[in-house]
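I would like you to help me understand the sequence and structure tokens below and explain how sequence relates to structure.
___
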Amino acid sequence: MKRMFSEVEMSRDVAIPAKHLKGHSPPHQHILTRLLQDLLHEKACREHGFYLAITALKSIGNINNNNNTDDENSQADTLTFPVSFTCRTFLPSRGNVMVGTVMKLLFNGPNGAATAVLISSGPLRYAYLSYLKMPDYHFVPAKSEEEEEACFQKDDLTKIAVGVVVRFLVLGRRFKVSPEKRRTDVYVLASVDGDDSLGPVSLTGCDRPYM
């Protein structure tokens, strides 16, 4: 079984507008800030999963000027720095057990019944738990707006509902890539079937149990 957390060494080019670096030498803080912004925006990659934190800055290479201009006052110049660093990453794989919080019930069954829930765990916002993967639970609709919300419930009254912390097994994952936004997200298929340790757990509330 693969570990969910890794420390990986990465390299990438970090682009900084030249005007932001005037009067700053060395410009390490600007480069690190831009690198963090880039990773936050991209969110994840297929190879390593979610970017959690930069743990070490290995090296910053020589400047590459991306603009062919002789105008020293040009505001459009972009300087590129090759950067090597280590990053803590998180990638759930088949067979991993995770803990997260139910964020939403998906109502797309007959007569308005819910057929699944979405679970959030740390940077993972989309763990899909189908009713087929919680066979001991049955859907209980809300009786009125004033009473309890709809949920999935077992005969012993154990519930899976919005706000409930759930331990689940990862059955699979897929990636959603938005090229125009340069952003990657990760989705997993979850299950609470076949193991008594899976299902609602008594935690006091954090959907980021490992951070």
User: Anything to note?
Assistant: The longest helix spans residues 28-42. Residues 173 and 188 are 4 Å apart (CA to CA). The mean pLDDT is 85. The helical segments are 28-42.
